[in-house]
Write a structure and sequence with these properties.
By secondary structure, the protein is an alpha/beta fold. It is 50% helix and 11% strand. Strand 1 and strand 2 form a beta hairpin. The model has no long low-confidence stretch (mean pLDDT 90).
């Protein structure tokens, strides 16, 4: 959070709560519980958490059927062009990808910073991200060797939804990945 913005809110006597981005899906549950306490909506928060956990359990049950050899190698594009940013192993987005049956090629780094050299070396089967990220990549010859890009194996997602640690990490993020990469399993989700 921008310190200047926090200062302005504080001067206006507006209470604030800042929280680091969750590193795991389980930390999203803790964040929702904390928000429920702060807003006096404990029951509602617990209901949201319960619903999310049930859906996450369903995803886990369904994806257990996916053989390890069939899991797709993916790279989630957070930022590109002037440096590479992705969902490394200390991010809830990496948890989402792995839960949805993917192999996140960026688990060799913590958090968000990656390198073009590593991305090219890993050469993932699929790229996941916003359409403008893929346009940036297509317009730069540095990415020409990425087979996912040249083969059209890009999955466009709404990154505004995908990157927010809340209930839609399962309803939208996991479900979208499974629908796009493993449609033969998507019908089993039933949510």
């Amino acid at each position: 959070m921008n310190e200047e913005v926090l200062g302005t809110l504080s001067k206006a006597k507006i209470q604030t709560l800042t929280q680091a981005s969750p590193a795991k899906i389980s930390e999203i549950y803790a964040l929702i519980e904390q928000l429920g306490k702060v807003t006096g909506k404990n029951f509602e928060a617990r209901a949201v958490i319960s619903s999310m956990k049930a859906k996450e359990d369903r995803v886990n049950d369904v994806m257990k059927r996916l053989p390890e050899s069939s899991r797709k190698k993916v790279y989630y594009v957070v930022g590109t062009g002037k440096g590479e940013y992705t969902a490394g192993k200390q991010t809830f987005i990496s948890d989402v990808l792995i839960s949805a049956g993917c192999i996140n090629v960026a688990t060799d780094v913590d958090r968000w910073t990656y390198s073009l050299e590593k991305l090219i070396d890993k050469n993932p089967e699929y790229l996941i991200g916003a359409d403008y990220s893929f346009e940036t990549m297509k317009g730069n010859s540095s990415y020409a060797s990425l087979s996912a890009l040249s083969n059209g194996k890009t999955i466009i997602v709404n990154t505004d939804i995908f990157s927010i640690p809340g209930p839609r990490v399962i309803d939208y993020s996991m479900k979208t990945i499974i629908q796009k990469l493993y449609p033969q399993y998507a019908y089993l989700l039933r949510f």
